[in-house]
Amino acid sequence: MRIAIDAMGGDFAPKAAVEGAIEASKAYGVEVFLVGLKEEIEKYITEEDKKSSHINIIEATEIINADESPVHAIKNKKDSSMVVGLKLVKDRQCDAFVSAGSTGAFLAGSLLKVGRIKGIDRPGLSPLVPTMKGSCMVIDVGANVDCKPRNLLQFAIMGSVYMEKVMGIKGPRVGLLNIGTEESKGNELTKEGYKLLKEANLNFIGNVEARDITEGVCDVCVCDGFVGNVLLKSIEGVAATVFNALKNEFMKSFKTKLGALLLKGGLRDFKKRFDYTEVGGAPFLGIDGIMIKAHGSSDTKAIRNAIRQAKLLYDNHCVETIREEILNSGVDNENEQ
Amino acid sequence: MRIAIDAMGGDFAPKAAVEGAIEASKAYGVEVFLVGLKEEIEKYITEEDKKSSHINIIEATEIINADESPVHAIKNKKDSSMVVGLKLVKDRQCDAFVSAGSTGAFLAGSLLKVGRIKGIDRPGLSPLVPTMKGSCMVIDVGANVDCKPRNLLQFAIMGSVYMEKVMGIKGPRVGLLNIGTEESKGNELTKEGYKLLKEANLNFIGNVEARDITEGVCDVCVCDGFVGNVLLKSIEGVAATVFNALKNEFMKSFKTKLGALLLKGGLRDFKKRFDYTEVGGAPFLGIDGIMIKAHGSSDTKAIRNAIRQAKLLYDNHCVETIREEILNSGVDNENEQ
Predict the structure, then answer these.
(1) Which among B177, B260, B265 has CB closest to A263?
(2) Which of A19, A139, B259, B304 suits a disulfide with A126, CB 3.0-4.6 Å?
């Protein structure tokens, strides 16, 4: 399998991207294509690695920054690591693309340069959120801020395929994020979406509430991108706030410091459970290729895990299965008015 | 000041409601009107309390349950503790109403029985969320699931009045909950809402992200009720999940148990900070009266704090100020098409 890596994207680029890619190529036997400034990339590759047939450098001279207008940047910076990486997938020279760069550019670029799976109206950005029972895919978290009910149905189908194929969950439980569990609850979008999900060939468990996501009430949490973004960021924010507040409590006195020391291992295990670097990146499902958006603050381990995730999508034929399921479901975009 | 209490609402009614009301009447010198089944209420009142001129019982023979259709229940159960309590405010026999009962019935009943402040299109349910710096009012969290931009502006005005008058914050920082901080971000609603907020006479700090709310980035967080509900419940859910996971870690071995023992005081202080019983209830701002929705699982302390909050609204002329500010702002509902 050949994976293109945006070597210039992310807070710790190119170091984390390059080192993560090299680690992954060794651990998972994938061929990696590091896209970016050759000179910068080579700083983090040993002489021995340079000789490996599994590690390639593809020169790209421009970089897209987080504060640029995504569509403008994709259209104008044709030699950026993002655009060159996306083109490798478009031209079938690579099977997947992994980037920790600008989320907006990643989304816009995937749509413009690689394109959608036939039948999908709106691809969904879909990270895995850690829960008490494992993880839950939230789809969409920001690619589509104004959705139609049929978009929600397509998100549900794609999320189910991912959780079944990649995570090995038989009949993944699909929940519709809502403000109450009763069928009658919600806004116009969720009320209509509920009807479509109920009729679909899915393990739809009904409405779910935000408070139950981290408890593990469902395997796929379907929502429009605005709401999903708020959910994701509040989970991130509260977890960070709680950890920081806890740290402050622990540093208050000798007694509490001693207590914290005794709990160290447990706290580490615990923090690990809420650690995004463990789960890899967010696949952008619905694009006609394997696209993984790694967190902007990804370190080496996070990049390695994102590459591992791309391999799982590839090995388990996730894109092909989504294509089939959408066609079988009859919600392909040819129905759209 | 006279406060009506729904003695039959909430998971621990009537005990928590009655005991909380008696405690509050003693602590804050308010006159309380306990509405519900006389016989049930009297079980929790001592002979001495019964003689107090500050504690009154208003008989109401029906109870509205959480699973009833709110509008139907309000219209049909005319002798319920909820409807009788609301009527006490409507008829100006009481200055405020506090209930831990069905949220849906509380919202529908407030609108139908008490009515809106002149100029307000949509009242907003607006709890205080604990943050690292104090608390943040989130408005709305579920009363209005499909909002218009002008609703957001009215929420912002009402929230600002509350935080200034009741919490004593000069020029409260108003943030618009969005998926990014740039002005161009968001869905149709927030893009239009942004323009209105920017022009208003408010300390508008721009868009805020969900991850920054618990850090204390703003004093008033404005959002439509669907999104606010998701935000609130995910904060609740993650905090609960983290505390439970932590507890499990602490019980793993003798060493960790000892560590937890040494940290006990700190952990208690910490948990207290995220404890809803400390902040009281959620005011339903925009109703022409002081309406406090206490959490369904309110204990005695939570009810007492909700009554204290009602008194603060009263003492600081919050309803009157909202009325004036809405008229001054020119966004009163007479402009609506």
Answers:
(1) B260
(2) A139
User: What residues of B are in contact with residue A187 (Cβ under 8 Å)?
Assistant: 145-146, 226
Average pLDDT over residues A173-194: 95
Q: Among candidates A256, A238, A263, which has minimal Cα distance to B266?
A: A256
Which residue's structure tokens are 């971000």?
Answer: B185
Residues 255-314 (A) with a CB less than 8 A from some CB of B: 255-256, 258-263, 265-267, 269-270, 273-274
Average pLDDT of span A311-316 = 97
Contact A270 B210 (CB under 8 A): no
Structure tokens at A121: 């109206």
**Residue B95, preceding bond cis, omega within 30 degrees?**
no
Do the Cβ atoms of B281 and B312 come closer than 8 Å? no
**Minimal Cα–Cα distance from A53 to chain B, Å?**
41
Which residues of chain A are within 8 Å of residue B186 when distances are taken between CB atoms?
A: 145, 226
pLDDT computed for residue B277 by the predictor: 57
| Whole-prediction pTM | 0.91
Q: Which residues of A9-32 are buried (b: 16+ CB within 10 A; e: fewer)?
A: bbebbbbbbbbbbbbbbeebebeb
Spans of chain B, pLDDT less than 50: 335-337
Supply the DSSP symbol for A114.
Answer: I
Q: Which of B65, B151, B152, B229 would you mutate first to test chain A, the one with the most A CBs within 10 A?
A: B229
- In whole angstroms, how far apart are CA B265 and each of A258, B133, B269, B311, B323? 14, 20, 6, 31, 44
CATH class of B1-115+286-296: alpha beta
User: How confident is the model at residue A337, as a pLDDT?
Assistant: 40
Fold assignment, A1-120+286-305? Isopropylmalate Dehydrogenase (3.40.718)
Report pLDDT digits (tens) over A203-259. 999 999 999 998 999 999 999 999 999 999 998 888 888 777 777 877 888 888 888
Nearest CA in chain B to A146: B187
Confidence of residue A268 (pLDDT cuts 50, 70, 90): confident
Which has the closest alpha carbon to A78: A64, A91, A90? Answer: A64
Domain boundaries in chain A? 1-120+286-305, 124-278
B72 at A interface, C-beta within 8 A: no
What kind of fold does domain A124-278 have according to CATH? Answer: Isopropylmalate Dehydrogenase (3.40.718)
Q: What tens digit of pLDDT does each residue of B166-181 get?
A: 999 999 999 999 999 9
3-state secondary structure of A254: helix
Q: Which residues of B touch A259 (CB under 8 A)?
A: 258-263, 266
Q: Is residue A261 within 8 Å of residue A255, measured between CB atoms? A: no
Q: Is A251 on the interface with B (CB under 8 A)?
A: no
Which candidate from A190, A213, A250 shows the least CB-CB separation from B234?
Answer: A213
The shortest CB-CB distance from B270 to any of A246, A266, A267 is to: A246
Provide the CATH topology of domain B121-285.
Isopropylmalate Dehydrogenase (3.40.718)
Contact by Cβ (8 Å): A269, B247 = no
- B121-285 and B1-115+286-296 share a CATH fold: yes
**Are residues A240 and A155 in contact, defined by beta-carbon separation less than 8 angstroms?**
no
Candidates A115, A132, A127; CA nearest to A281 is A127
A and B: number of Cβ contacts within 8 A: 169
Q: Is B260 exposed, middle or buried (0-12, 13-18, 19+ CB in 10 A)?
A: buried
Residue A333, pLDDT > 60, answer no
Which chain A positions have a beta carbon within 8 Å of B258's beta carbon?
A: 259, 262
Using a CB–CB cutoff of 8 Å, tell me whether B242 touches chain A: yes
